[in-house]
Amino acid sequence: AWFDPEVLSADRARWTVTAQSDRVAVRLSGHAVPRRLAGEVPSLALVRGAVQVPPSGELIVMLADHPTTGGYPVIGVMNPDDVDRLAQTPTGSSIVVARQRT
Q1: What is the dihedral of CA 45, 22, 76, 53, to 10 degrees?
Q2: Is the pTM of this model over 0.85?
Q3: Class in CATH terms, 5-98
Q4: Cα–Cα distance between 41 and 15 in angstroms, integer?
Q5: Do the Cβ atoms of 12 and 98 come closer than 8 Å?
Q6: What's the CA gap between 15 and 8, in Å, rounded?
Q7: How much is the CA Rg of the chain, to the nearest whole Å?
Q8: Is the separation of the CB atoms in 15 and 93 below 8 Å?
C-alpha cells in the first residue's frame, strides 16, 4: 500500500492552487500526503480527474490535456463536475478536497 490507512480515511483537507497549474493538471499545495513507499509505479493509465501524489506529497489533478499514462501513485479520482470547477479556479485560491464515499 502506497499510503497509510489514516491518510486514506481523512474526510477533508484544505489545499491551494499553485502557479504550476495548466491545461494538463492542477497542482495543489497544502498538507503533504506522505507516501509509505519510495519510488514510482509502473506507468498506469490516467483518466481526467485522477489525483496523483508525487514524492513531494502535493496533489496533481489531471485535466483535459493530461497524459495517457503516469508514474506517480493515484490516490483517487475527482467527481467530473468538481474537475470542471477546479479547472477554472485561479492560482492562489484555497479549496477543500472532501472524500466522497460511494
Answers
A1: 90
A2: yes
A3: mainly beta
A4: 24
A5: yes
A6: 16
A7: 13
A8: no
Q: How far apart are CA 91 and CA 17, in angstroms?
A: 5
Q: Can you read off the three cell numbers belonging to residue 32?
A: 503533504
Residues 39, 80: Cα–Cα separation, whole Å:
29
Residue keyed to cell 474537475: 83
Matching residue, cell 475527482: 78
Give the type of residue at 14.
R
Please tell me the distance from the alpha carbon of residue 90 to that of residue 16, in angstroms, as a whole number: 10
Cell of 90: 485561479
Could you read off the pLDDT of 11-59 as tens digits, one per residue?
A: 778 899 999 999 999 999 998 888 888 778 888 899 999 999 999 999 9
